[in-house]
Write a structure and sequence with these properties.
- Strands 5-4-3-6-7-8-9 form a 7-stranded mixed sheet, covered by helices on one side. Strands 1-2 form a two-stranded antiparallel sheet.
- The protein has a single domain (21-158), classed as Vaccinia Virus protein VP39 (Rossmann fold), CATH 3.40.50.150.
- It contains 4 helices and 9 strands.
- The protein is of the alpha/beta class and 173 residues long.
- Helix 3 links the parallel strand 4 and strand 5.
Length: 173
């Protein structure tokens, strides 16, 4: 509780952090989540943003957090138990894949770790018209999947940010 008022990233172990609250506000604003949507939270860590997303989608929606670090999967799940949000869950990341391709499509995808480029495999997990927000090469990107499958995703870049690197879960981790 002594750190709750700080507007800075906080370490949660395993080389990972909770994002700065102001940054999370920006992420959620650009993600533009509505009640009833299906949301994927990639890099759920402590579960903090997963819970916030759960309140935004309400009981008509679902939120699934995925995390590559096994100890943080347990940590995030334990944190979820303190909130009455049965429509929210955290799962271990799928080996050698980003997101949850077998549960796609999602209306919204939030990625809380920095990628070198927009991952096409995550764009493919969005519904047509869906939105993903993620940090790419120091910028926050809002990615909109077009309604027309023949068109490329539209990417808007905002501000300059620092995030932990996006980790692809590998066999044997």
């Amino acid at each position: 509780m002594r750190l709750a008022a700080l507007d800075q990233p906080l370490p949660i172990g395993h080389g990972q952090t909770n994002s700065q609250p102001t940054t999370v506000r920006h992420l959620l604003r650009w993600l533009d989540v509505s009640a009833g949507q299906r949301v994927l939270d990639v890099g759920s860590g402590s579960g903090w943003t997963t819970v916030l997303l759960g309140y935004l989608v309400g009981p008509e929606g679902t939120v699934t957090g995925v995390e590559a670090v096994p100890a943080l999967v347990d940590f995030g799940r334990a944190n979820l138990t303190t909130y009455p949000l049965p429509w929210v869950r955290i799962e271990a990341a799928v080996t050698d894949a980003l997101g949850l391709p077998e549960e796609a499509p999602f209306d919204r995808i939030l990625v809380s770790a920095e990628a070198a480029a927009v991952p096409g495999s995550l764009v493919e997990q969005l519904v047509p018209g869906g939105v993903m927000v993620l940090p790419v090469a120091g910028r926050l990107c809002v990615v909109r999947r077009p309604l027309d499958p023949g068109q490329e995703a539209v990417v808007e870049r905002h501000g300059h940010y620092r995030f932990v690197p996006l980790v692809l879960p590998r066999a044997g981790q």
